[in-house]
Design a protein that fits this description.
With about 110 residues, this protein is mostly beta strands. It has a domain of about 70 residues: Ubiquitin-like (UB roll), CATH 3.10.20.810. It contains 1 helix and 6 strands; from the N terminus they run ββαββββ. The strands form 2 sheets. A 4-stranded mixed sheet has the order 2-1-6-5, with helices on one face. A two-stranded antiparallel sheet has the order 3-4. It is globular and about 35 Å long. The relative contact order is 0.23.
Length: about 110
């Protein structure tokens, strides 16, 4: 495992990087959101997942309204340093604001 620092991350033209939240105990993908440098710094400082809301144009802590907070265990980047994974533990039973454990609960029929 190779270490990285925040200065090595590659952000898009809006200053954002896609961020996947993955549950540590099950490896289940819980959600996808976007981070910027400020949200990553808040995540590191608080050990709680913070993201940048593209629709509201503001920093938000996951679970600030739903209560579905995500505790950070580790942060990984991919080989290109343009995507993050937040390895997390759930504070409650779910991550999705709908009440589902994961935001990925809809399946396309093939």
């Amino acid at each position: 495992m190779e270490n990285f620092n925040i200065n090595q991350l590659v952000f898009n033209s809006d200053g954002l990087i896609p961020t996947i939240a993955q549950e540590k105990s099950t490896n289940e993908i819980l959600m996808l959101a976007y981070s910027n440098q400020n949200s990553i710094q808040m995540t590191i400082e608080t050990k709680k997942a913070h993201f940048w809301s593209r629709s509201k144009k503001k920093l938000w802590q996951k679970g600030e309204t739903s209560g579905n907070k995500l505790n950070i265990i580790n942060i990984y980047t991919d080989c290109d340093s343009d995507t993050l994974i937040f390895e997390v533990e759930l504070e409650k039973d779910g991550a999705c604001h709908t009440g589902s454990k994961s935001c990925f609960y809809k399946k396309l029929e093939l």
